[in-house]
Design brief:
Helix 4 crosses helix 5. The longest helix has 13 residues. This protein has two domains: about 200 residues, Alpha-Beta Complex (Quinone Oxidoreductase, Chain A, domain 1), CATH 3.90.180.10; about 140 residues, Rossmann fold, CATH 3.40.50.720. The protein is globular, with a radius of gyration of 20 Å. It contains eleven helices and 18 strands. It has about 375 residues and is α/β, with parallel strands linked by helices.
């Protein structure tokens, strides 16, 4: 079928919205009409060539929409169902069988190349094949083909065009708190980076009863939003030393911290801001080969640094949980969103890089 999609021809290229041909879903796949799809820093990293995407490609991995057709063996959803699209996993390796799909042995293969595990793609253009399953979806498009494993059914009465970021960025931040760190009520927590992931973590930490709950960022407007979403304290990095300020708020440091930036100096600060026996979660994605300058003696005091992929979440469990919070008025993730037509993808990218918007959402 003929669809519209934002195509990038090569690493470092520009996105062009044009017509492509999308093949019918295979036996375990579904065809989804996209209502809205988020823009994530991982997409921009892939566009710059930092991930092994095969170009030309359609990116996008925070989609939501309506199922239009299904393959013969699909049992999870039916045509007409509203769904959030999320990342892919094999379902058969050790981590998947233990309920840890974010650490799937084949995560790179299922998500970063833009191709199915067998090397095929459902998209064709005037110049031949176009990679069309980035993170199992390539949702910067009017329609996608995705495996049934990475679609999560949701209620049809929800604002579907806004739900896509729950499938990655919002889930990553919220899941890092409630699935990975699991702070006890009254625990102290510092979030370094108040972008979409960090602010989602702030909301989840407020729901978890964290106090003090400290947000650190360079941008005053984002710190104001963090306060609105539940932070008890904010620290403007660049104007004050985050470690010193956090230790003045919480004597000895916080119980937990989250690094949501992907910068080695910020990771150092996030580690030094935790008290002995504290835990620092690393969420931010850095360029390949990045090294962090950690003082080994700091870690000797029982401090832990742990990496967290996709919020350590099981999407089928966490996405409904986040939506329940949202409907109860306790998780207003939609305050992070700014909507753009798909044709304005370049403007959305520029606004995100400049900090004018937290989470752009493209509307096909």
């Amino acid at each position: 079928m003929r669809i519209r999609a934002a195509v990038i021809a090569k690493a470092g290229g520009v996105f062009q919205v044009r017509d492509l041909e999308l093949e019918e879903p295979r036996e375990t796949e579904v065809l989804v009409r996209v209502a809205g799809t988020g823009v994530c820093h991982t997409d921009l990293a892939a566009a710059r060539g930092f991930l092994p995407v095969m170009f030309p490609a359609v990116l996008g991995h925070e989609g939501a929409g309506v199922v239009e057709r299904t393959g013969l063996r699909v049992t999870r959803v039916r045509p007409g169902d509203s769904v959030v699209l999320t990342w892919g996993s094999c379902g058969a390796c050790g981590p998947c069988r233990r309920g840890r799909p974010a650490y799937c042995d084949r995560f790179f293969q299922y998500n970063f190349t833009g191709r199915r595990p067998d090397g095929t793609t459902p998209l064709r253009g005037g110049v031949g094949e176009v990679s069309g399953v980035f993170f199992g979806q390539s949702s910067w498009a009017s329609h996608v083909v995705a495996d049934e494993r990475n679609v999560v059914p949701v209620s049809s009465h929800l604002p579907l065009e806004k739900l896509g970021p729950l499938g990655c960025g919002v889930m990553t931040g919220a899941g890092a708190v409630v699935c990975a760190l699991r702070p006890e009520p009254g625990s102290s927590l510092a979030v370094f980076g108040a972008g979409a992931v960090g602010l989602s973590a702030v909301m989840a930490a407020a729901l978890s009863g964290c106090d003090p709950l400290i947000a650190v960022d360079l941008v005053p407007e984002r710190l104001e939003m963090a306060r609105e979403l539940g932070a008890t304290h904010t620290v403007q990095a660049g104007k004050e030393d985050p470690v010193r300020t956090i230790r003045s708020i919480c004597r000895g440091g916080v119980d937990y911290s989250l690094e949501c930036v992907g910068h080695p100096e910020v990771l150092r600060q996030a580690v030094e801001a935790i008290r002995p026996l504290g835990v620092c979660g690393l969420v931010g994605m850095a360029s390949p080969g990045t090294r962090a300058p950690l003082d080994m003696n700091t870690l000797l005091s029982g401090r832990t640094v742990r990496g967290i992929v996709e919020g350590d979440a099981v999407p089928d469990l966490l996405i409904p949980r986040m939506l329940a919070w949202y409907e109860a008025g306790k998780f207003p993730f939609d305050k992070l969103l700014s909507l753009y037509p798909l044709n304005d993808i370049t403007q959305a990218e520029e606004d995100m890089k400049a900090g004018r918007t937290v989470k752009p959402v493209l509307i096909p």
